[in-house]
């Protein structure tokens, strides 16, 4: 009876909140920061919290998690509350910015084409982007030299899944050095350049199309290089977001094809990356589906259990840049992994991130979860409103690229904590590049305007 109640209540609850979202933001025609985050939250947290309560999974049973069904129930309740107060934050943002009719302006934005300026399409801009891409490629080679080879290179030579897991750990969580510095140049920078060039290539000049292909292949390779499952799926999702944004509406057929392709890709990656080539197909399917729907919400159980046993952290898991605050940062995701699976890890250094409400709960309890959801929802909706307002004035390449990056960037918090935003150098690097790009673009437009007697000079559109 409990399982039936959870399923029925969850479906009704989701339908009610969907209508609430439509009332706040309007119908979903293209992905926005809020709509895409909600989609990720439902896919990676909401559905998983239901499945944990109504099904029996071998992985959770092996860890003895079913001895505490009350914690599973709390995971479900907290996930529901997180979504409710997130939407409440959206509504509060709409009230604060009530002079901007967001649903109507968002609809109007979809009818406007992205304008490509002469600077966007210039040789100067091409060589700057090419230089940054070459720099990213060089950093990637340096990184490979430091770790002694990409884990992807050992997929077919490693003896088993444990050996691959060790290589993945050494290349990521157990990397000796400032890993975030490498990530800035070999992941974030080329990804943002890919978004920018995705619009400029519409000018049909071959040099931009070749650069687009090179950036696509680079990002595709990098997303596979550490043999993690999520990065490649996220990159494919990003490609779809760009396509829908350029076309002004979401195509259901493309989403369906992406889902089918992603399912097949996840199965193949599980066979190759987890050393399960000889395992029965039903075991592979179960493992893949478990990773997609349960992987991000599973750690929330341990966050609740840890807080119950040791008490709340009261912000000590938050970043402490340059030690300006009087506490030693608590490596939350690594410590939770050790707490949950310490006896099974051996020499591996793993991590257990979960949906952002998990981090807020283990630090400040239920009230912290509620307040953080409202504030985070307010921040996401505010960004959406400000971007839509700016894009209606000038739907330029750089503003559109930054908006899409924001959609992609904030979606990650359906699977990890939000406290790292304040010291996220990747985030600030993209903002800095966008600011410089926008500044140079405006200077070039003013120069053209004076020469031609025009206030604005547009070369083409991206559609």
Automatic annotation (TrEMBL):
Record keywords: Membrane, Transmembrane, Transmembrane helix
Residues spanning the signal sequence: none
Record field: transmembrane: 6-24, 31-51, 71-97, 126-143, 179-200, 207-224, 230-247, 254-276, 360-380, 392-411, 417-440
Iron-sulfur as UniProt keyword: no
Protein name: Putative membrane protein
Organism field: Bacteroides fragilis str. 3976T8
Lineage of the organism: Bacteria, Pseudomonadati, Bacteroidota, Bacteroidia, Bacteroidales
